[in-house]
Amino acid sequence: MGSSALQRLLADPRASFEDVALTIARDVDPQADVAAARATLASLAEPLPDGLHRQLPALQAEMLSDRLAVERGFRGNEDDYYDPRNSDLTWVLTHKKGLPITLAVLYVAVAQRAGLEAEGVGFPGHFLVRVGGPDGVYQDPFHEGRVLSEHDLGTLADHFLGGRDKLRPAHLRPVSPRELALRMLANLQTAWATRGDGARAMVAADHLVDLNGAPEHFRDRGLLALSLAAHEAAAEDFRRYLAARPDAEDALEVQAALAAAERHGATLN
């Protein structure tokens, strides 16, 4: 997948979570069978009861979790959380495990096929699904699709925010396909970097810069470039970051990285 493919997709107001996830899946596995994935999603939705959309959101969510978690065994990959394949929806559909965000895409795609109102929620550190609109319920696809109470949501916020913040309405806001793409790409960048695959982490970093252009993406790409001995590219990204964030908390660290990139670049020249 080139960034242009994802950019073209995101320019289309009809783009869905499913479209985004399957486009990104090609980054993880160029041979990913997108048509088979769509057929699987359709088969998962077909047996859901007629009239489910008229039921209370809590029952809708329960039926989704019964179908996907209990009957079909979809769950979070707690054994190998940072496996890049957890971000490949085609792999998740085959192996029935993945990240919160990829499983959320699954739940949303199946729910929407069944005529339900379902949205992905960019909760900090742990993607969720909202079923039933603004007055609906939140469920956690990573943990068997369980419905979360307000207390559960507060506990999640405490865990992932480490006491730095409390649960706020912004944490429960549904995200757009573009926001989904950025978060999935950030996950891939982290997963590949964790596995020492700097070249593929760099691919994700390039996509993030192209799609968003936030200074932090330039910094992160610069660090990857430095690790790959691409000193001139690293230096350029560090300069962009420091120009935009001169007072950043990590400014001194980035300045040191810039000096190292410039020093090594001068040595090679």
Task: Give the arrangement of secondary structure elements.
Layout: H1 3-10, H2 17-28, H3 34-45, H4 57-71, E1 75-76, H5 89-95, E2 97-98, H6 100-113, E3 118-121, E4 128-131, E5 137-140, E6 146-148, H7 150-161, H8 177-194, H9 198-211, H10 215-227, H11 231-244, H12 251-268
Strand content: 5-15%
The number of helical runs is 12
Widest sheet, order of strands: 3-4-5-6
Count of discrete domains: 2
Helix-strand string: HHHHEHEHEEEEHHHHHH
Global mean pLDDT: 93
Number of extended strands: 6
Unreliable sequence segments: none
User: How helical, in percent, are the residues?
Assistant: 55-70%
Label the structural class.
alpha+beta
Q: Measured on Cα atoms, how large is the radius of gyration?
A: 20 Å
Largest sheet, if any?
Answer: 4 strands, antiparallel
Shape: globular
The quaternary structure here is: single chain
Describe this structure in words.
With 269 residues, the chain is an alpha+beta fold. The chain has two domains: 170 residues, no CATH class; 92 residues, Tetratricopeptide repeat domain (Serine Threonine Protein Phosphatase 5, Tetratricopeptide repeat, Alpha Horseshoe). It is built from twelve helices and six strands. A four-stranded antiparallel sheet has the order 3-4-5-6. Strands 1-2 form a two-stranded parallel ribbon. Strand 5 and strand 6 form a beta hairpin. Helix 11 runs antiparallel to helix 12. The longest helix is centred in the C-terminal third of the chain and has 18 residues. The radius of gyration is 20 Å and the shape is globular. It starts with a helix and ends with a helix. The model has no long low-confidence stretch (mean pLDDT 93).
